Amino acid sequence: MKYIKDKAIILSTRDYGEADLLVAFLTRHHGKVAGVAKHARKSKRRFVNSLGTFNLVEIEYGEKAFPSLVFVKKAVLAESFSMLRRDIVKLSCAGLVAEAIKEMVPERMVQPEVFDLLFGTLTEISISKDPVSTSCLSLWRLIVMAGLTPRLDLCLVCKKKISKNGIWYFDPVTGGTVCKDHIDNKKAASSLISFGIISLLEKARHVEIEKLWRFKFRPEDRDVVLKMLARYVEFHIEKPLKSMNVLSQIDHVI
Ligand SMILES: [Zn+2]
User: Fold this and answer.
1) Per-domain residue ranges for the chain?
2) Contact between 158 and 181 (Cβ < 8 Å)
3) 2-80: what fold?
């Protein structure tokens, strides 16, 4: 069996059989991988609580054991982001980003920038007073990295340029912004987007990850942006994001 060592962030785990764990993780150099950690629920020596969601680990896995699943041999905890685990909003915001990565990133597609984005997101959410803005910025960059950047500079129907004075809407199906003359009336109330949000997203599109977290959405804009980006992701993955349901049940978040 060929063994690979890499840095990885655990995206999710679930029980598998009597004593095993099914683990999805994002490596820095080998993309997103799914594997089985044999006897992980009993083996203290090989895993020592390292396989919890969001943990950064030094992982070692072998390919061959199963057709699509790798065999996780060892995982050593490097960082547990313990500060984000003490706060339900932080935990749920991190969960949303991890879920979006799990659903959007194809297996084995090598994109170190997605790993760096997730590492940066977990680090920032741990210390941030505004984890909702952090998860918005992270979802936005994930959309850009996935090659799904929506057009936000004009009405996609009549080509009218976005300006401060107009009324604008975001329509995932059309793939970006539309003006008030070209939004479906049924969608209008839930898709209004301000010029300020559009400008911030455009600025945050290419900035280095370390500088991304300087952007903050206004408190009244946060839930609009989060819902808008989540709806856009859901449109592309063709299913709801479970974490949005969790966030909607926490008071004063969205
Ligand atoms: Zn138009």
Assistant:
1) 2-80, 83-149+205-248
2) yes
3) OB fold (Dihydrolipoamide Acetyltransferase, E2P) (2.40.50)
Q: What SS3 class is residue 175? A: coil
Architecture of domain 83-149+205-248: Up-down Bundle (1.20)
What angle is formed at CA 136 by the lines to CA 135 and CA 138, rounded to 5 degrees? 60
Instruction: Give 254 Cα–ligand 1 centroid separation in angstroms.
Output: 29
pLDDT in tens, the chain (254 residues): 889 999 999 999 999 988 999 999 999 999 999 999 998 888 767 787 899 999 999 999 998 755 689 999 999 999 999 999 999 999 999 999 999 999 999 999 999 999 999 999 999 999 999 999 999 999 999 999 999 999 999 999 999 999 999 999 999 999 999 999 999 888 888 899 999 999 999 999 999 999 999 999 999 899 999 999 999 999 999 999 999 999 999 876 76
Residues 184, 185, 187, 188, CA torsion sign:
positive
pTM higher than 0.90, yes or no? Answer: yes
| 169 CA from centroid of ligand 1 (Å) | 10
Expressed in angstroms and rounded, the spacing between residue 168 Cα and the centre of ligand 1 is: 9
